[in-house]
């Protein structure tokens, strides 16, 4: 989108042409049977170096720009491609509210057992696509992890328990999806989540000269870094989440956010990329105002701006009354829902339901049972989620990992 904007503002089509060609190549290199792409490609040979397919690191912006390029440029080719990719993602990568990487060529036979934090942007894109209920369920899982650790770790096991990579450089993706879900639903639950994000930043990340990245979300140790996206994206989405319409000098509905949270006007599709000569100045004042909108009220000084911000952010609407962090909406204790009187491993009906969740008895004796959880054996995405959450209740017991399966010894035949 950025290169298309550059072409249409300068009249030189080369920028848009080169960017479009890059999108074409990725589309051509997809797996045509599954409509999935990998994460790293050799730009010299066109061969995939990493064939992992997901919506997180390595492919997130490609999928994002398939949809947003259609919105901004009006080219239906991008819409058709996004539709095919989206269907493939929901078929092979989405497992209920979980997004798990797979092999682009063998999506049903090879899967990862981890979730990376960059995929947290996906619910926000689903809102733009109109799949709001699914977006909300994925966001709930992410918030469950965020609620537990105060931040999203870079990678966590699909059991939602074991942190695999504890770093968190104050990424914006979770705040981004929270913002879009609030705008789409008006549910103040998302304002409460936004408040909890800000409180975690203020409590754990604030340092003398800014905000420090988390070296490990479990210990809250700092890294000596503050990436530019913290200001450009994370704080921007958090401000917009709480901002009233009269706080903003323009209508956000006239723009689309780039992957770096910059604003591109939707009116860009009305501008031709080749009518003007290179170097000519765009003279359409109405459209150039949309590209870089002037502030309605110029601040006489930084002190005046600071006073205005303090007044806005101290209002009841911006900052709800002090309260505990909202609890995730997902049912973190499905035992009470499926087994209100407890799990009885001697009851066939209980065993059948556990099997549907991917939970099986490996062995049992007079002391208890050994149970195994295999998420791939769950019958539905929701039952898989319930199976994962039930296994969390056993997480304090000794466990070991066997491939993508989790095995526990349970010291009672009835739970």
Structure notes:
This protein has 415 residues and is α+β, with helices and mostly antiparallel strands. It contains 14 helices and 19 strands. It has a 4-stranded antiparallel beta sheet with strand order 16-17-19-18. Helix 1 (2-10) packs antiparallel against helix 2 and helix 6 crosses helix 7 (173-185). The longest helix is centred in the first third of the chain and has 18 residues, at 76-93. The chain is globular. The termini are far apart.
What labels describe this entry?
19 strands, 3-stranded antiparallel sheet, 14% strand, alpha+beta, 14 helices, 4-stranded antiparallel sheet, 415 residues, 41% helix, disordered C terminus
Tell me the β content.
5-15%
Judged by helices, strands and strand pairing, the structural class is alpha+beta
Give the end-to-end Cα distance, rounded to a whole number of Å. 55 Å
Number of beta-strand segments: 19
Percent of residues in helices: 40-55%
In terms of per-residue confidence, which ranges show pLDDT below 50 for 5 or more consecutive residues? Answer: 275-283, 287-303, 312-322, 395-415
Oligomer: single chain
Overall form: globular
> What is the makeup of the main sheet?
4 strands, antiparallel
Q: Give the neighbour order of strands across the main sheet.
A: 16-17-19-18
- Backbone CA Rg: 24 Å
Mean pLDDT: 81
Number of discrete helical segments? 14
